[in-house]
Design a protein that fits this description.
This protein has about 60 residues and is mainly α. It has one domain (about 10-55). Helices cover about 55% and strands about 0% of the residues. The protein is elongated and about 40 Å long.
């Protein structure tokens, strides 16, 4: 696989795990490298990161538990 961001497959399916720091080091580097060169995936990353931050603000009460 090439190190050039444009040659790397899109990483949308990995963004949730990336935001939560749940990827192995190699995958984390691959996603970070891809995000530097892919505006579409970078926009998706921002949306996932914002959603994750908002979910962290919810309490059990907010979720009806």
């Amino acid at each position: 696989m090439s190190d050039a961001p444009g040659d790397d497959p899109h990483v949308r399916l990995l963004l949730g795990a990336y935001v939560l720091h749940a990827l192995e080091a190699g995958e984390t580097c691959r996603v970070a490298r891809h995000l530097q060169g892919c505006d579409d995936c970078a926009r998706d990353y921002v949306e996932v990161a914002e959603a994750s931050a908002l979910l962290a603000l919810l309490s059990a009460e907010d979720l009806g538990e």
